[in-house]
Amino acid sequence: MSVNIAQLLVRSAHAYPALPALARGARLICSYAELAARVSRLAGGLSLRLYPNERVALVMHNCPQYVELLFACWHAGLCAVPVNAKLHPRELEFILQNSGARLCFASAGLYDAVAPLVSSVAGLEEVINADDPRYAAVCAGAPIPVAVRAAGDPAWLFYTSGTTGRPKGVTLTQNNVMAAILSYFSDVDAIAPGEAIIHAAPMSHGSGFYMLPHVAHAGLNVVPESGGFDAPEIYALLQAHRGVTMFAAPTMVKRLVDHPVDADTANLKTIVYGGGPMYVADCKAALARFGPKLAQIYGQGESPMTITAMGKAIHAASDHPRFEARLASVGQAFTGVEVMVADEQDRPLPSGGVGEILVRGDTVMPGYWNNPAASAETLRGGWLHSGDVGSLDEEGFLTLKDRSKDLIVSGGSNIYPREVEEVLLRHPGVSEVSVVGQRDPEWGEVVVAFIVPRGAPPEQAELDALCLDHIARFKRPKAYRFIEALPKNSTGKVLKTELRKLLS
After folding, report:
1. HSE on the CB side for 287, CA within 13 Å?
2. Helix or strand or coil: residue 91?
3. Whole-number pLDDT of residue 418
4. Nearest 5 degrees, angle CA 245-CA 410-CA 93?
């Protein structure tokens, strides 16, 4: 079957050529006809340099170029590799090397950190600043038709944190991405032509994914002037655009609620939150502030934004006898997606049973990039083994009991303790270390490191500097606890449940 998600832009440009497609803040940048023409030329420039299925890395803050580059990659038959802009240069280096990207685009503020990697990453030919004349030269290519793609061809290579300290590249196919787009329409929200989405969350992750259904229905993609989340700026943009949707981590929703402004929110249509369930109290506060405009999704990179959903109607059903229990859940399985809670032998558990969350459907990746061993382990028996722990009730609502035993979700970003632990163990004064998440009212969780010192405990400043030299700032522990010994079971495995008790 032939499918190319770039056709979504072409379709909208034909149907609604004059509708605005991109805006920077309140300022309109281009129409759908103009965006489609620019993407076709950019794709033509890319096709002169790269072969079909080759990877193009995007190390960029939120900006209008993000939209046109994603669609240009797909238009030209290439695979986009959007990269978390907050990563450390060493983490970026690994992703660029592992993906085999020959070309990388970087935002002006990131270019100086990324450009030197050309000398250390085999096969990487050039890093292009998306704000300088070299980018304009690529955009000046001759327009080309949309490339013919198969459903199983790679479209988006998403690097997720890894339990081994190395991220894994999730291969998302044309079919995966199209299924995710259709899932949005079936279970999250409808989009009318001209309605807007504000990209306050990173476009390398969820907000970028939600760009796609908006393009499919000729919606307006709005990039804030700040390039990110700023509560006063969001409220101001609500006055400039209509039918506004925003994807947000729970901490962002809380900041919007807590911001002391009496702004008109009539133009706010939907806040889709994810990255972890919202505290019930915070959810109620958001409903009180904005009305019935909340929708929740749960997913992973391996099935992005598409495992379960809870729409606006359920959020608003305060008269339901299980209202609070539903708010504490992450909703029901998306249409066309199967969710099972299983025991250690992958046998389904009855309602209320606590076990690992397993998923299958067209939204689930076919495997990790160049990692058949990890793919086989994660996709055993035809099911995605999420590593997350939860339970299903008799109505099919899924409640997360724990993000995977290792995973920490802080401000909507995933942090695997192993990668932090490996860095801290580089310090000569650290004998053993175990990292856990501590509940936090603002961030959801923060990172705490329990350390068995070798002699005198190291200074916190030394440990902070070590972390900042090897991993992204958001992964650095917020606190260090020095203890005589780590609690372990009979096989020597650290009992993180016991460490978490020390935090309560």
Report:
1. 21
2. helix
3. 80
4. 95
Q: For 121-145, how does the pLDDT look when each residue is reduced to its tens digit (9 = 90+)?
A: 999 999 999 999 989 999 888 999 9
- Determine the average pLDDT of the residues in 92-109: 96
Q: Which residues contact 260 (CB under 8 A, 6 or more apart)?
A: none
Q: How far apart are the C-alpha atoms of 337 and 388, rounded to whole Å?
A: 17
Q: In what order do the strands lie in the sheet with 430-440?
A: 430-440, 444-453, 479-482
**Residues found in the chain:** 504
DSSP characters over 224-286: -TTSS--HHHHHHHHHH-SSEEEEE-HHHHHHHHHS------TTEEEEEE-SSPPPHHHHHHH
235 and 263 in contact (C-beta within 8 Å)?
Answer: yes
Please tell me the distance from the alpha carbon of residue 443 to that of residue 440, in angstroms, as a whole number: 6
The mean pLDDT of 311-317, rounded to a whole number, is: 96
Rounded to two decimals, the pTM is: 0.87
The CATH number, out of the four listed (3.40.50.720, 2.60.120.10, 3.90.226.10, 3.30.300.30), of the domain defined by the range 408-503: 3.30.300.30
What is the separation of C-alpha 459 from the centre of its chain, rounded to a whole number of angstroms?
Answer: 34
Q: Tell me the three-class secondary structure of 395-440, residue by residue.
A: CCCEEEEECCCCCEEECCEEECHHHHHHHHCCCCCEEEEEEEEEEE
Take residue 359 and report the two structure tokens written for it.
């998923």
Distance CA 64, CA 375 (A): 34
Closest CA to 271 of 250, 285, 288, 298: 250
Cα–Cα dist 291/270, whole Å: 10
Question: Does the pLDDT of residue 254 top 80, yes or no?
Answer: yes
What is the end-to-end Cα distance of the chain in Å, rounded?
54
CB 68 within 8 A of CB 29: no
Burial status of residue 242 (CB atoms within 10 A of its CB: 0-12, 13-18, 19 or more): middle
Q: How many CB atoms lie within 10 A of CB 287?
A: 18
CA atoms 272, 359, 397, 283: torsion sign: negative
